Amino acid sequence: MHGEADTSPSDKRTLWFVTQNAHKYQEARRVLDPFGIKIRMLDYPKTEIQRTSLGEIAKFAAEEASKKHNRTVVVEDSGLFVRALKGFPGPFSSYVHVTIGVEGLLRLMRRQRRREAYFQASLALASPRNSCVEFAGKVNGTISHKSAGTKGFGFDPIFIPKGARRTFAQGGTEFKDKYSHRAIAFRKLALWYIRTKPETNSQV
Ligand code: ITT
Questions:
Q1: Which positions of the chain have pLDDT values less than 70?
Q2: pTM for the complete prediction?
Q3: What SS3 string covers the chain?
Q4: Best of 50, 75, 80 to mutate for ligand 1, by most ligand atoms within 8 A of CB?
Q5: N or C of the chain: less Cβ packing under 10 Å?
Q6: 14 in contact with ligand 1, CB cutoff 6 A
Q7: Is residue 24 in contact with ligand 1, taking CB distance under 6 Å?
Q8: Which residues does the annotation mark as catalytic?
């Protein structure tokens, strides 16, 4: 599963999601589809400034990418914030996943009885002419004691959303879309988009 072919910037009826993470893209697409909003993947590395605020990281990257590609783009920055680790890995989640991974995080949590954590997603929608619009989504939950499940990506095998008994990786797509930080943020974007652009699929 990889990025769809890039097309010309003159494709004005599309929101372009700048991401190299095909899972993120598929999740966004599933949420936006019922709203009739078309999204495509722009498989290009976003610039990640060193900040602790996911919103600031997403905004900077979106504004830069919209100018560079001369089109309306969406950027998402997300992360897992673990209470017992004082919010770690937070904005460093991608790096931590690639380095110590799920098992490494479980090791850091070995003696912790308090296992609360949350995922957050910050979205920034930018176009070359208009100012940036931001949306956020958050899901509270706990870190499991063992990795469980094979679906999804990243820290899905160790995150149990509040009110559920399964990890995101055990639950699969419908379960993920019901609870996830990303689904919440993209639903907010969709409602804004429809309200602001009654004729969906028109350019932002
Ligand atoms: P792009 O920057 O190309 O969009 P990325 O995966 O590097 O892709 P981020 O920089 O926003 O995206 O990193 C967020 C990391 O947080 C991600 O790589 C996962 O390790 C973790 N993460 C975020 N959302 C997640 C989710 O829904 N399920 C599991 N892990 C998630």
A1: 1-13, 198-204
A2: 0.92
A3: CCCCCCCCCCCCCCEEEECCCHHHHHHHHHHHHHHCCCEEEECCCCCCCCCCCHHHHHHHHHHHHHHHHCCCEEEEEEEEEEHHHCCCEHHHHHHHHHHCHHHHHHHHCCCCCCCEEEEEEEEEEECCCCCCEEEEEEEEEEECCCCCCCCCCCCHHHEEECCCCCCHHHHCHHHHHHHCHHHHHHHHHHHHHHHHCCCCCCCC
A4: 80
A5: N
A6: no
A7: yes
A8: 77
Q: What is the pLDDT of residues 78-136, one digit of tens each?
A: 999 999 999 999 999 999 999 999 999 999 999 999 999 999 999 999 999 888 999 99
Alpha carbon of 155 to ligand 1 centroid (Å): 9
pLDDT value for 6: 44
Q: Which CATH class name applies to 2-201?
A: alpha beta
Domain range annotation of the chain: 2-201
**Does any ligand 1 atom lie closer than 6 A to the CB of residue 20?**
yes
Output the pLDDT for position 8.
Answer: 43
